[in-house]
Amino acid sequence: MEQNDTLAGIGFGYRPRAAYACDPARSRGRLYPEAESPTRTAFQRDRDRIIHSTAFGVARALARALCCDEDLAEAIALVHDFGHPPFGHAGEDALDARLKAWGGFDHNAQSLRVVTGLERRYAEFDGLNLCWETLEGLVKHNGPLVDAAGRGLKGEVPQPVLDFNALFDLELGQFAGLEAQCAAIADDIAYDTHDIDDGIRSGLLSLEMLEEVGLPRRILAEVRARYPGLDPVRTEHELTRRQITLMVEDVIATARANLEALKPDSPEAIRAAGRPVVGFSPAMAGLEKELKAFLYAGLYRHPDVLAERAEAEEVVQDLFDAYFADPACMPEGWREVPEPGDGQVKARHVADFLAGMTDTYALKEHRRLFDRTPDLG
Asked: What is the DSSP letter of 155?
């Protein structure tokens, strides 16, 4: 068997199993017969159908197909969200505004703070004491942070990242490993799909509007040709499911071609490649860019969305101001501020508390402290 065929077989999931293990190649099949997937075993396809709409499910699928470590890819995809405050990007912008005088707020830097210090579960150390590769993926999943001279490539590197890097060098000038790159593109795929779903559910988008955009138009044409008269709800599910599949298979094919050209013999070769190895083909990248532009104009900048976002920012900023003015407003365990006379330490302490909230808890706290709370349910 040629090397590429061997890699494809391993990536497909047909690896050695115990004699008593169920073998996907010998599955008794499905109630409704379907053609086999070109990149997944029957059991992998089942698992993906249950969780594939999540970024970590897509990350695992990509890592598996590229014969790298699925668990590491999933860990990076999961840890990426640790630093998101309530209300997502709206909450992040609100905290960034309040912390502007003290270095601002960055959710990746916050995730790093959580897993390297704020979590207090173990007797021997603060944080989760994660592996270098997981931390590298958390910090650099979107690419290098500094150039050869150490200057930030996308503005100043957040101070928490620089501080930790001084203790445990994450090689900020290099790309991350293949698993982190899988996690990064998986995040894009999942967001594109989730945003279509959210837009349709909210009534701000429609299938008819999506027919004006290249990738959804192509998929919807296929769905309607194969299933004439299919109801809108199932049509939308077919659209998002097929979109994930098309994007994932495009990334797999593109990454395999890049790996064949690069012929890396170690993770270090991936990091030193000077460019991403995992990504969309030029054609799919163009379609994805067009889709993002459509979602930005029709969904993210919609007046209703902007109004709700402004209210969410107000909730987070109100809470920050209240806690900063009187830390006793915070629950026990957070009321004692280390070095209370230091405004930066105090502000970061309040932000740490706020960043760990869910949307629901933030609204509950706002109702407790203020007379009027927006309905963001």
From this structure: B
